[in-house]
Write a structure and sequence with these properties.
Strand order of the largest sheet: 14-13-12-15-16-20-17
Largest sheet: 7 strands, mixed
Strand content: 15-25%
Radius of gyration: 25 Å
Mean pLDDT: 77
Number of strands: 20
């Protein structure tokens, strides 16, 4: 069968209009062609053109290559298309990268293959994933010495991997708890997933290609792997959070407060008096490249925060147990601060925030008592104050009534 070279890459689609992606065999053929050309010319090709079973062609780009005296190795990134199978996931590297970035991306991906090093071992990565709220039962595999006689693949779970020592040369692979069947996508046409949108558990991994399959992952340089996390829209239903006695900043107040905070990538956010952690979790999910600290003094509420971090994995959220403002001494200076509970220390909290907040930073308080509003006004006489009264629909005898929530004073101030 002959192939006509096309000027642009072909993106195969099935009869439903969905991109079918490219098979593992097509990726293998592209990798083999690139490696062969490198051996013949001693120059790595930037792209290679391969023939598809349909007789069409596509242009593919190697993401990592290595040329030795008598051998060549090439890595391709597999495009799973709009209907991903079990080979769909993300390829990540901790070489030369902060571990927190890799953990954020791994939490976002349906499956992640992580290239480790002597400092960021599988045990450390597994523990960091669990600290970020990923289930200890999440399946993983450690692929040691791939391609060598000592090659070994250990299939286990994060909790077990966190307590083991593995060979220095390895790739750490993490799957969803229930496998690929657990992947859940929005079903509207406007939200239909694409090959670079494999997220199923909160974030969306919007710039990392799908997984590389079977091509000497250990040879990939850190510069070959890039990714960017995009925000998950706020507005988690109140009922989805674990809490006690209704101690929760209501959904509508969270939305208003987060809009005032306007957290940006790379910024630091404090949530003082975090309660069940609803604001912290929404803030961390809404801006995954920021770092959020949830400060809470009550042990029971800290347990709720941990449970909510398990329900909504947020690797950029850190729980700080203790009483503000004293426990904030070692935290980095914030760009945004939310105060939802004060424990009788509101004036001290505001004083600390005014001292530590970055120029142009934002402080938002959600207050329910007139006494706390007056205390806030005494400390922040030029702050903006809005009184918010929300009523939500509730069924009654087959009809609908409005159920009023407590009025809340939303106080916002910029440094």
């Amino acid at each position: 069968m002959s192939c006509d070279v096309m000027d642009a890459p072909i993106s195969p689609r099935d009869r439903r209009g969905m991109r079918t992606g490219f098979t593992t065999g097509t990726n293998a053929a592209a990798a083999a062609k690139a490696a062969t050309l490198a051996l013949l010319t001693e120059i790595w090709p930037e792209t290679v053109t391969v023939c598809l079973p349909t007789g069409e062609t596509t242009i593919m780009t190697p993401v990592a290559c290595r040329l030795a005296a008598e051998s060549a190795q090439c890595c391709m990134i597999k495009d799973g298309g709009d209907d991903p199978d079990v080979t769909h996931g993300a390829l990540l590297s901790v070489h030369g990268r902060p571990l927190a970035e890799v953990v954020r991306a791994a939490c976002a991906a349906t499956k992640a293959a992580i290239l480790t090093d002597d400092l960021h071992t599988p045990a450390r990565i597994a523990q960091t994933l669990m600290d970020a709220g990923v289930s200890a039962n999440r399946p993983c595999a450690i692929c040691e010495n791939l391609g060598d006689p000592e090659q070994r693949i250990v299939r286990t779970h994060l909790a077990d991997a966190a307590g083991q020592v593995f060979a220095a040369l390895n790739v750490f692979v993490v799957w969803p708890e229930g496998g690929i069947a657990d992947i859940r996508y929005p079903i509207s046409d406007s939200e239909k997933p694409t090959s670079d949108d494999p997220s199923a558990i909160g974030y969306q991994l919007s710039a990392i290609p799908p997984s590389a399959i079977g091509y000497r992952l250990s040879a990939i340089p850190p510069s070959a792997i890039g990714y960017r996390l995009s925000a998950h829209p706020p507005g988690i239903p109140d009922a989805d959070f674990s809490t006690t006695g209704g101690l929760l900043t209501r959904r509508e107040i969270r939305l208003l407060s987060l809009a005032e905070l306007a957290i940006q990538p790379g910024e630091v956010c404090w949530d003082l008096g975090a309660g069940s952690g609803a604001v912290s979790i929404e803030a961390a999910r809404g801006q995954p490249m920021a770092t959020v600290y949830a400060v809470e003094r009550r042990g029971l509420m800290c347990d709720h925060i941990r449970e909510n971090m398990r329900r909504f994995p947020v690797p950029n959220l850190h729980l700080v147990e203790g009483t503000a403002p004293a426990v904030c001494a070692d935290l980095p200076n914030p760009h945004a601060v939310f105060i939802g509970g004060s424990g009788g220390h509101l004036a001290e909290m505001i004083t600390l925030v005014r001292q530590r907040l970055h120029p142009g930073g934002c402080l938002v308080l959600a207050l329910v008592t007139l006494e706390n509003l007056q205390a806030a006004r005494d400390c922040l006489p030029d702050a903006r104050v809005a009184q918010v009264q929300v009523s939500v629909g509730a069924p009654i005898l087959g009809m609908l009534r409005l159920e009023a929530h407590n009025p809340v004073f939303v106080v916002s101030w910029r440094s």
